Amino acid sequence: MSGHRGLTLVVGVNQTLTWGMTFYLPAVIAGPAGTTLGMSRAAILGAFSCALLISGFCAPRVGKHIDRHGGRGILVASCAISAAGMILLAAAQGMATWYAGWLVLGVGMSLGLYDVAFATVGCLLGRNATPVITGITLLAGLASTIFWPIGAKLVPALGWQGTLLCYAAVQIAINMPLVIAFVPAGLPRESVAKTTPGSPQSVRRLAYACLAIFFTLRWFITSAIAVFVLPLLESLGATLDGAILVAALIGPGQVAGRMVEFALTSRTNLLTRARLAAFLSPISLLVLLIGGPIAAPLFAILYGMSNGILTINRGSLPMAIFGPAGYASLLGWLAVPVLLAQASAPTLAAPLVDTLSPQNLVIAAAAVCGLASLLLLPLRVPNAD
To answer: DSSP alpha helices (H): ranges in 236-326?
Structure first.
C-alpha cells in the first residue's frame, strides 16, 4: 500500500502541474495575450480548440506506445514538449506563431493528461489501479484552484510571456525530474496480456460503443456548460456575482464526488457507483428548474460531484470491463471522440444558447445527460455483477 500511496502522490502532483499549466492556461493568458497580439478572443481561444484536436489525433498512437513500453517515457516527453510549446507561445508575434505554439502544446497535452496518467497506472497495477486513479484525480482536481490564482498573480508581475517561461521552467526543473525519479518504468506487454479474461467479441464491441457514446455526450455537455454556465444562471434570475459564486461551487463539488467515490470503493461495486454518479447530472440540471434560493447551489454541488466521479470512470470503467491487456490503446481510442466533443461543444452549443429559452436549454442538457446515463445500464464487469 505504501508503494500505491507513493505512486498516487507522485502522479497526482504531476497531473496537478500538467493540468494547471496547460489545460487551464487560457483562462490566465488569453486576455493579455489577445491585447498584445491584436487578436480577438475567439481567435485566441480557437488555438486552444486546435490543441485539443491535435490531442485527439495523437491519443490512439500514444496509447499503443504505452501498451508496449509503459507510460513513464511518455510523461517525461510531455514535460519537455509542453515546455517547448510554452516557450514558443511566449515568443509569439502574431497569429501564426500563436497557433504554432498551441499545436506543440497540444502534442504535449496528448502525452501528459489524465488518459496517459491512467494508462501508466493501469500498466503498473492492472485491475488494482482504481484506488490510485481516484487518488490522482483527488489531487489534480485542485489544479484550477491552485493555478488560476497563481497565474492571476504572475501575469501582472511577469507579463503573460514571463508567466509562460516560468511555467516552462517548472515543467523542466520540477515536473520532469519528479516523473523520472519516482514513476516506475512499467510492465512488459506480455505480463499484462496474461491477465485479460476472454469475452465474446460482440459483447466487447457493444461495451466499447456504450462507453464511447456515454463519455462523448457527457463531455460535450460538460464543455458547453463550462463556457455558458454564467449567462445561463443569469438568464434564470441570478445576478452576475451570484452566478460566479454558484459556478465556483462546481470545483469543490468535483472534489467531494471523488471523496465519496473513494469512501464507497470497498462497499459498492464500480458500475453501481458509476451509474449513480451519472444520473446525478440530469438530476442536478432539473433541480435548476425548481427555483428557490438553494436550487442553483445544489445544482452546482450535484453537477460537480457527477463530473468528478466521471473523470475517475474514464480510467476505471475500461480497466474493469476489458481488463489490462490493450488498456492504454483503448483509452487512446476512447479519448478521440471525447476530445472532439470538448473542442466543438462551445461552437455547436452557441446557436442553441442564442435561440432556446433558458428553461428549454436546461431540459435539453438534462435529456442528453439522462440518455448518456442509460448507456451504462447494459455494461457488466466480470466477476462483479
So the answer is: 240-248, 250-264, 270-290, 295-322
Separation of alpha carbons 64 and 85, rounded Å: 24
Q: Is 204 exposed, middle or buried (0-12, 13-18, 19+ CB in 10 A)?
A: middle
Please count the CA atoms within 13 angstroms of the CA of 196 that sit on its side-chain side.
Answer: 20
Arch. (CATH architecture) of 2-191: Up-down Bundle (1.20)
Residue-wise pLDDT for 287-339, tens only, equals: 998 877 899 999 999 999 999 999 899 898 999 898 888 899 999 999 899 98
* Cα torsion 42, 46, 47, 51: sign: positive
Pull the grid cell for residue 41: 478572443
| 8 A C-beta contact, residue 17 and residue 171 | yes
Looking at the domain that runs over 198-374, which CATH code has it been given? 1.20.1250.20
Same CATH fold assignment for domains 2-191 and 198-374:
yes
Q: Where are the domains of the chain?
A: 2-191, 198-374
- Quickly tell me which residue has 464511447 as its cell: 212
Residue 194, phi then psi, degrees to nearest 5: -70, -15
State the Cα–Cα distance between residues 196 and 190, nearest whole angstrom. 11
Evaluate whether 123 touches 327 at the Cβ level (below 8 Å).
yes
Alpha carbons 2 and 212: distance in angstroms, whole number: 34
Cα gap 10→56, rounded to integer Å? 25
Per-residue pLDDT of 357-379, as tens digits, reads: 999 999 999 999 999 999 999 99
